[in-house]
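ok so I'm stuck.
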Amino acid sequence: MDEIKLFNSTTEREMYENYAALYAIVMSLEHLERAFARDSVSANDYTSECSKLLLQYKTVSQMVTGEVNINSFVEKYKLNCPAAIRRLEVGIPSTIEHGGASNLGNNNVKQVAKTVQDFITIMDALNLEMTSVDKLHPLLTDLLQSINSASFLPSDYRWKSSFRDWLIKLNKMKASDELDMEQSRQLLFEVDQAFSDFKHILESHE
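replied:
not stuck anymore, here's the structure
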C-alpha cells in the first residue's frame, strides 16, 4: 500500500504543523477557561497560563500564511470551543478584563503608586507618538490590571469598560499596525480623563 502524504513540500509541512499548534492552543485555552469557571484553578495560575496561551496563539497565527480568522478556523475543523473564541477575541485573561487576580491585596499605597505609574507611562507613550499595537497593548493591559486591583475604586468606574474596549480593538489589529492620529488623540483624551477621575476618587478617600 502506497504511503499517503499530507504534504508535498517543506512549506506545506510547516503549514500543517502551524495549524496543529493552533489547534492545540485553542483547545488548551478552552479547557483552561472552563476550569477557571468551575473554580478548579486559582486566579493567579489562570492569569499566567492564559496570558501564555494568548501570546502563543498570536505568535503562531503570524507564522501561518495569510491572516488567521479564528471563527473560520473553528468552523473548518469543527471545534467546540466558545470560551476560547471569546477569550481570543478579547485578547486578555478574564481576570484582567473583569478583575480578580491581584497580588497587592489590600495595600492601597502600592495600588495607588502602581496605577499612577501606569497612567503616566501610557500618556507619555502617546505623547511621544508611540502608537503601534505592540507598544500600546501591554501598557494598556497593565493599566487595566492596576485599575481592577485598586479596591478603593467603585465597581462602576466607567473607564474599565472603555479600556477593555480599546484592548479588544487593539487585539484585532496586527502587532505592527498603528493607531491613526484621530484614534491616538481619542485614547490619550480618555486616559487623561480617567486619570483625572482616579485622582478625584483618591482625594475623596483621604
